[in-house]
Prior knowledge:
Low-confidence stretches: 1-21
Largest sheet: 17 strands, antiparallel
Mean pLDDT: 89
Number of domains: 1
CATH class: Mainly Beta
Shape: globular
CATH architecture: Beta Barrel
Order of helices and strands: HHEEEEEEEEEEEEEEEEE
Distance between the termini: 46 Å
Radius of gyration: 19 Å
Strand content: over 45%
Amino acid sequence: MDPPRKRPGIGWLILVGLALVLPSSHRAFAASMGVSQELDAEYGYVAGAHTRNAGKVDENSADVRYVISPQITKDLLLRIGAEWERFDFGVSEHLPIPDLLQQASLVLGFDYQFADLWIMRAEVEPGVYSDFRDVKWNDVDAPLYLGAVYLKDPDLQWIVGLRMDLRSHYPVLPGIGVRWKYADQWTLNLIFPKPRLEYELSNTLLLFFGAEMQGGTFRMSEHFGTTRGNPKLDNAVLDYTELRIGPGCSWKALPNLTVEAGVGFMPYRNMDFFDRSVEVRSYNAPYGQITCHARF
């Protein structure tokens, strides 16, 4: 277990709202569809990562998100859906590490085109964010995401946004990003939490190299610390952060279905019980993941 340190770099993870704004909203408005739908599913595995006083800790992660967007006016889309996310860690119960972190939430928001070249998104995700051992009202949270995209042209878009979560160590985190197709086959996609450089090999196959930040803020159970010999961690709040780096490929299997696969290296994982001044860090492990994106 490592001594606590404050690092604003955790903000990379929390800027996930930025990636939610780009360019799917623009396509939906342009197509003038009555209803559009999004389904995203991801599974990842991280092999044993060195963790002080805990040996090597492996991880399975999964995320499923579905959103339906009815078009209310030519400028307004509602967003209604749900998300489930889970992290499973291979640890024994006597260590100050949760074996499970989980999110089960609604997705409620809207996209609004307030000018010819500007689209904004507001989205709140009320739900349970905890280790799911004894779910109570204090496990409920509602992070808020706000963002806007400036669609300069088909090859260049600028993104600004912020995430608000009063439970987190960093309750308000702003950010900025850009998507720039600077050559026929090359795109610089600097949008957190998945910045990457993309090379379009064909109309259906894309190669990329980039990074990904994963995590969130979770409430531990009433006896989480007591069962691990550290009672001060009972009911603690955990900011979880994980960085993954590596190459991958994206295959457009069907007009409405894209499958991505990636492998690489997880250099850093951090579990920050910031309200109890306890941190646990893991380092240096290989990972693999597969993701499906459906739009219809």
